[in-house]
Amino acid sequence: MTQSVLIVDDDAFIRKLISTTLEDVAGFALVEAADGEEALKAAMRHRPRIVFLDVDMPHLDGLRVCRALRAVADLDEIRIVMLTAGTEHEHDARAAGADLFLTKPFSPLDLLRLVDELA
To answer: Sign of dihedral through CA atoms 112, 116, 117, 118?
Structure first.
C-alpha cells in the first residue's frame, strides 16, 4: 500500500510548492487540502504518514486540526509538521501534538531533508 502525505494550507502556492517538491519522493501519494475541515476528511480517508499543516487557516485552524488528529486513536502514527510564518505558535503547536516545524519561507531542500527524516 502506498503511503500518503497530506498537504494542508489555504495558500495554493504553498500546496503546489510542497507537492511539486515531493512528487517523486519515495513513492508517496500526495493529497492536498485547502482548509482544516478538508484536512480532517482527507486524513480519515487516506491515513497519511506525514501531514504538513499550516497554522493560520480560515474555518478550522491548524492547531485545532492537530488536536483533532491526535484524538483519533488509529491516526496516532501520523507525523505532523506545522507550517508557520514564525515561532510565535511553536509552544501551542507542540502542546497540540505537532512533531516538527517548518518555517515559511522554506527551501525545497529543507523540505526534502525533513521528509527523509520522517519517512
So the answer is: positive
